[in-house]
Design a protein that fits this description.
The protein is α/β, with parallel strands linked by helices. It has a single domain, classed as Rossmann fold. It has six helices and eleven strands. The strands form two sheets. Strands 6-7-8-3-9-10 form a six-stranded mixed beta sheet, sandwiched between helices. Strands 5-4-1-2-11 form a five-stranded antiparallel beta sheet, with helices on one face. The longest helix is centred in the C-terminal third of the chain and has 16 residues.
Length: about 210
């Protein structure tokens, strides 16, 4: 369960988002909204990457009160991942697995089927945008995450990688891992997806499993 309460985010004293209360049980969620609506801001807030007012709790682990345990159960892949160019992909993978835990079987399969092993020894500065995206998605599968936050995960991926990612998301669902996806593209998954939308600086539309107060 992801619980958000009294959430507010401002930039230079200008309100950007306000969510009085939101509860998301496990499942697959499609976060929708126009460009600039605040989708990335919300994902980064849930990931603990930017400051905000309010409380965010995942499976009774409070982001503010228990940051280290929280970061072990929440994984985030950015729309345009940026890593130090002097590191290799293997350097990053080792850092994540040392911090969060070894790759899950899902992660090992994604790494193999996405062909990531072929360029793990290369420095990040030599990566294409598609290679960076695949690596970023792989890193979310380190340890035992309860929630995956994927910001525009299909951008820059070829069709084979898109299908692989969709299958991986569905496998996550079967294993009880919740996934929150921000995407301008249709998800077209074979399992139920709950749509939530940011409009007028708040979560205005929500269906089925999404509960607001």
């Amino acid at each position: 369960m992801l619980r958000i309460s009294n959430y507010k985010k401002t930039y230079a004293e200008h309100p950007v988002l306000s969510i009085p209360a939101l509860q998301l049980p496990g499942g697959i969620y499609w976060l929708k909204g126009e460009n600039g609506a605040g989708k990335t801001t919300l994902l980064k807030s849930i990931a603990g990457m930017i400051p905000f007012e309010g409380e965010i709790v995942v499976d009774e682990i409070n982001l503010r009160k228990s940051r280290m345990p929280y970061t072990k159960v929440v994984s985030f892949s950015e729309a345009e991942p940026v890593y130090p160019e002097f590191l290799t992909g293997r350097d990053l993978l080792q850092f994540y697995t040392q911090t969060k835990g070894r790759l899950s079987p899902l992660g090992e399969r994604f790494k193999q089927e996405a062909g990531i092993d072929r360029y793990l020894e290369k420095k990040i500065g030599a990566y294409s945008s598609g290679m960076l995206k695949k690596l970023s998605l792989l890193l979310t599968l380190a340890g035992e995450p309860k929630w995956l936050l994927l910001d525009e995960p299909f951008v820059t991926l070829d069709q084979a990688a898109v299908e692989l990612l969709k299958n991986t998301v569905q496998d996550c669902h079967r294993q009880g891992i919740a996934v929150l996806i921000s995407s301008h593209q249709q998800l077209n998954l074979s399992i139920p997806v709950v749509e939530i939308e940011i409009r007028n600086q708040t979560i205005e539309h929500n269906f089925d499993a999404a509960i607001t107060a």
